[in-house]
Design brief:
Blueprint: H1 4-13, E1 28-30, H2 37-47, E2 50-53, H3 60-63, E3 71-76, H4 79-89, E4 95-98, E5 111-117, H5 124-130, E6 131-142, H6 148-155, H7 167-176, E7 180-193, H8 196-205, H9 219-232, E8 235-247
Parallel strand pairs: 2-3, 2-5, 3-4, 5-6
Antiparallel strand pairs: 1-7, 6-8, 7-8
GO molecular function, one term: S-adenosylmethionine-dependent methyltransferase activity
Keywords: Methyltransferase, Transferase
InterPro entries: 23S_rRNA_MeTrnsfrase_RlmA, Methyltransf_11, SAM-dependent_MTases_sf
Length: 254
C-alpha cells in the first residue's frame, strides 16, 4: 500500500492539462447523469451544418463525436489546452481558436449549434449573438454546491446556495439574452475518492472546488484526509449537474 508521501508526490507531478480524467481510473468514481450528454450532443452534431464547442479543453469531448458537421469549430482560452485541442482535432478538420472567456471570436449568426460541457462560465449574450436564427445552445454544466463535502473538508463549512451555478440562474440568463429554454434537467450524483492522491489530483484539475488549492498549501489537510480514508474507507461526496438547451427565435419577433 502506498504511503501518504508517495500518493501526494504522484498526484502533484501528474499533468492536469486537458479535460481527461483517466488518471483517476481505479482511484475515484463518479456517477453519470441519466440523460447521456455525449449521446445527445452527438445526435445534434449529426443534424447540424455549422457547429462550435465552447471551452473545449483539450478537445476530448469533440474528438469522440462520430459524425461532425461539415463546418465545425472549437474555442479554448487556456494556452496548453488550446494547443492540445488543435493537435487532436485538426485531423478531423476542426478549426480551433483562442478566446478570452467573454468575447467569442466567431461570426454573428453563423452557427446553428453551439455546445459546451462543463463551462467555467456561460457568455449568454455572446452565444445569442453567434447563433443563427433557430439555432440551439446545448450544454451540460456543473450545478450548485458540487462536491461541497470536499470544500467543507478543506475550507470549513461552506455556505450553500451561493455558488452562482443554480439552474434557475442559467435559465434566467438565457431568457435575458433572448433565448427560449426548451429543456432543463438536474441530477445529484455520488462521487467516491479511494485515496488521497485522487483527491489532490482532482482539486488541482477542478480549480474552483477549493480556490487557490496547491498540494503544498493544503498538505496538513491532505494528511488528515489520508488518515480519514485509511480509518473509515473512501471519501464520499456528491456532484451536481444540469442540462440546459436553449433556442434562438427563428425571427426577431418570434
Amino acid at each position: 500500500m502506498s504511503t501518504f508521501d508517495e500518493l501526494i508526490d504522484e498526484a502533484a507531478s501528474a499533468s492536469v492539462e486537458g479535460w481527461d480524467f483517466s488518471w483517476l481510473d481505479g482511484r475515484a468514481t463518479e456517477e453519470r447523469p441519466g440523460w447521456g450528454y455525449a449521446r445527445m450532443m452527438a445526435e445534434r452534431m449529426a443534424r447540424a451544418r455549422v457547429a462550435v464547442e465552447l471551452q473545449a479543453g483539450g478537445g476530448e469531448v469533440l474528438a469522440g463525436v462520430p459524425e461532425l458537421p461539415a463546418v465545425t469549430a472549437a474555442t479554448e482560452s487556456w494556452p496548453p489546452n488550446l494547443a492540445r485541442a488543435a493537435a487532436r482535432l485538426a485531423p478531423r478538420g476542426v478549426r480551433v481558436v483562442g478566446d478570452d472567456g467573454t468575447h467569442l471570436p466567431l461570426r454573428s449568426g453563423a452557427f446553428d449549434l453551439v455546445v459546451s460541457r462543463h463551462p467555467v462560465s456561460t457568455p449568454w449574450a455572446e452565444i445569442a449573438r453567434v447563433l443563427a436564427p433557430g439555432g440551439t445552445y446545448f450544454s451540460q454544466q456543473v450545478g450548485p454546491d458540487s462536491v461541497i463535502e470536499l470544500t467543507d473538508f478543506f475550507l470549513g463549512r461552506w455556505p450553500r446556495g451561493q455558488s452562482g451555478r443554480e439552474p434557475e440562474l442559467a435559465e434566467a440568463a438565457a431568457r435575458a439574452a433572448g433565448l427560449s429554454v426548451v429543456d432543463l434537467r438536474e441530477a445529484t450524483l455520488r462521487a467516491v475518492f479511494h485515496d488521497v492522491g485522487a483527491v489532490a489530483y482532482f482539486l488541482r484539475k477542478v480549480i474552483w472546488i477549493v480556490p487557490g488549492f496547491t498540494v503544498e498549501r493544503y498538505r496538513e489537510r491532505l494528511a488528515a484526509m489520508h488518515d480519514l480514508i485509511e480509518a473509515e474507507g473512501p471519501f464520499v461526496a456528491h456532484s451536481t449537474r444540469f442540462l440546459i438547451e436553449a433556442r434562438k427565435p427563428e425571427t426577431a419577433n418570434a
